[in-house]
Amino acid sequence: MGSHCQTVRSAGGLSPMFRWALLAISIVAAGWEAPASADTTAYPSRPIKLVVGFPAGGASDVVARAVGQNLSQRLGQPVIVDNRPGAASNIGSEVVAKSAPDGYTVLLGTISLSINPSLYRNLAYDPLKDLVPVTQISSAPFLLVVNSAVPIHSVAELIATAKNATDPLNYASAGNGSGAHLFMELFKSMANVPLTHIPYKGAAPAMTDVLGGRVPLTFDNIITTLPLVKAGKLRALAVSTDTRSVVAPDIPTLAEAGVPGFDATSWFGLFVPRGTPREIVDRLQRETAEALKDPQVREVLLSVGSEPVGSTPTAFAAFYRAEIEKWAKVVRSAGVRID
Asked: 207 and 275, same structural domain?
């Protein structure tokens, strides 16, 4: 040891004690880094849970299973869809936000994740602080629709009817603060039309009453409404996005139909708990982006009106933050609050 220290001293001009202190520090540092490196290199070594904050069979579930099945093949481990419905997806989101940041619990986030921070005073998690955006899976417009028996055939006719009606024109939604509610509130403010909100406990009962003629109008995801439009049960007046949908190119945008600047989209994306190693975030993003190129996955998404995206974590984070700010303004303007 003496000769070794002498060599170190002559080579670096440092005392043996100082050199050994540096060596000890480097060993400790290496020890702290080793587990993360080992984990990310081996990832994934067990099944991954993909949490969906809505019931099985809905749009989120369809997207999760299409993408999850392909990811299972790419990652070499099962991707298990775990439906945790309730509280406008807050139950499922909280599960992921409070999970270990190891890449084995992933959230399928939706537009609700950008609306809920403005609606709920006492969320048990902070989406911006507790979750990390991985990639936007897809984007889908909402459709502004009326019951096919309603004598309204365009957005211009809807606006005129609402403004001239003796009794308020009602619209249905999946509940206070739902996408359908806030999309319509944005439409009301931008088109300056009086409409009365009729909230339901979910999209299914809301649509049931629109189809039954008890409420004439609603704004709902193209995934669930387009089949009803094609079946002749609903009439589509416009799509919510600033460009036409590739699956329904004959339906005009609201901007084209007389509400300039209107642009709102429903979306799906992956999130992981804060603290998840960047290597895992990047791996999930890359594999998901590749999955979205698969013809079968694309066919499933497009068949329900959802257009694949596959953005980078940085791009998705910027998009997500802009969505939170956008819908916060709508929530404040509409005076919506859920405690």
From this structure: no
Q: What is the pLDDT of residues 179-220, one digit of tens each?
A: 899 999 999 999 999 999 999 988 889 999 999 999 999 999
Query: DSSP string covering 4-50, please?
Result: HHHHHHHHH---HHHHHHHHHHHHHHHHHHHHHHHHHHH--SS-EEE
Is 176 within a domain? yes
Same domain, 193 and 211: yes
Q: Of 225, 233, 112, which Cα lies nearest the Cα of 177?
A: 112
Sign of torsion, CA 183 112 322 133? negative
Taking 3-state DSSP, the helix, strand and coil percentages for the chain, each rounded to the nearest 5, stand at 50, 20, 30
Structural domain harbouring 154: 142-239
Asked if 13 and 73 sit in the same domain, the reply is no
Q: How many CB atoms lie within 10 A of CB 337?
A: 13
Cis peptide before 295, with omega less than 30 degrees from 0?
Answer: no
CATH code for position 133? 3.40.190.150
Bridge partners of residue 145, in order along the sequence: 218, 236
DSSP structure class, residue 252: P
Same domain flag for 73 and 11: no
**197 beta partners:** 171
* Structure tokens given for 15: 């005392």
Residue 31, CA distances (Å) to 24, 25, 158, 238, 277 in order: 11, 10, 67, 59, 16
Residues in the chain: 339
**What beta strand segments (E) does 245-320 contain?**
266-273, 307-308
Number of domains in the chain: 3
Alpha-carbon span 205 to 173, nearest angstrom: 9
Note the pLDDT tens digit of each residue in 154-179.
999 999 999 999 888 999 998 888 88
